[in-house]
Specification:
By secondary structure, this protein is α/β, with parallel strands linked by helices. The protein contains 9 helices and 15 strands. The termini are close together.
């Protein structure tokens, strides 16, 4: 089979499409014929060799955590899923023709493989940071870098819970944020005052790592009311860096519920082939996305 792999840490150029043996589903796992794989910022952070404790890496390594596809092999002890089922979930080395998943759920009706691949890690992360920042119904949450995959999920999940959301993004994504129910403003010079004019901020999330931690602390009044998933220096300012996943099965169940109720939709901004994985990483690192990027197999 074909898979994307890297033998050294570095830039997008270390990614190569290689021939590899099919992995097998061990106990409690399933193997899928991958139809699409999600492209997440954690993918290129791991490729660069950033010290993310939740994702130790042995070289050479595959790439990717999220995927959607058709069940191809069922491991020992697995119940409730059969060969031929359409599933989406989280595993390892998902930029490949076949991958093993450790957490999965049946795809909701009407969802394409391309769309489904964009949800697993994104929804888990969104649920986790909303919980960790402690924002409650009736309060206001500021989301810095709100137009990407995690931001799109945060806005919709928060609104479903009765939380007011202020989102920052580039000028081209203002209408998109508003379509998700957010109060929107641009980043750049004067953004703090623009946020203040939109209302009081009870909690804030840094999803872009654009050097705004001090301003988020100022807007919320406390580093304890800010959580970052993108700025590794956040703890130096007393802000929690959230990088360890919670329950992925629970997040997938929540995703299925929200999607089925029409409360969550994350558009696919761009698709790539396996051979274009480096380009996908370049675009992901550049930011300014609207929704998700995925690899189509």
């Amino acid at each position: 089979m074909k898979k994307v792999s890297f033998a050294e840490f570095g830039g997008p150029g270390v990614l190569h499409l290689v021939d590899a043996e099919k992995p097998h589903a061990g106990p409690g796992r399933i193997r899928i014929a991958v139809r699409a794989a999600g492209v997440n910022p954690v993918d290129w952070r791991i490729r660069e060799g950033q010290k993310l404790g939740a994702h130790p890496v042995e070289l050479p390594s595959g790439v990717g955590l999220d995927a959607a596809g058709v069940v191809d092999e069922v491991g020992e002890g697995v119940e409730g899923v059969e060969v031929g089922d359409r599933v989406f979930g989280e595993g390892s080395s998902t930029y490949a023709e076949f991958a093993v998943l450790s957490a999965w759920a049946r795809m909701p009706e009407g969802l394409t493989f391309e769309e489904a691949a964009g949800y697993p890690s994104v929804v888990e992360t969104a649920l986790r940071v909303i919980r960790e920042v402690g924002v409650q119904p009736g309060q206001t949450l500021l989301v810095s870098g709100a137009s990407g995959g995690v931001g799109s999920a945060v806005l919709q999940i928060a609104r479903d819970r009765g939380i007011t959301v202020i989102g920052t993004a580039g000028a081209a994504n203002q209408d998109y944020l508003r379509s998700l129910g957010a109060l929107a403003t641009t980043y750049g010079e004067g953004w703090v005052e623009r946020v203040r004019r939109l209302g009081r901020v009870d909690a804030a999330l840094d999803l872009a790592g654009s050097g705004v931690i001090r301003e988020l602390i100022d807007l919320t009044g406390s580093p304890e009311k800010v959580v970052s998933i993108a700025d590794l220096g956040a703890p130096e300012l007393g802000v929690r860096f959230s990088g360890v996943a919670g329950s992925v099965p629970a997040a997938l169940a929540t995703a299925v519920d929200l999607i089925s109720r029409g409360k969550l939709h994350i558009p696919v901004e761009k698709s790539y082939t396996l051979a274009e994985a480096a380009a996908a990483h370049i675009d992901s690192q550049a930011g300014h996305s609207r929704g998700r990027r995925v690899i189509v197999v």
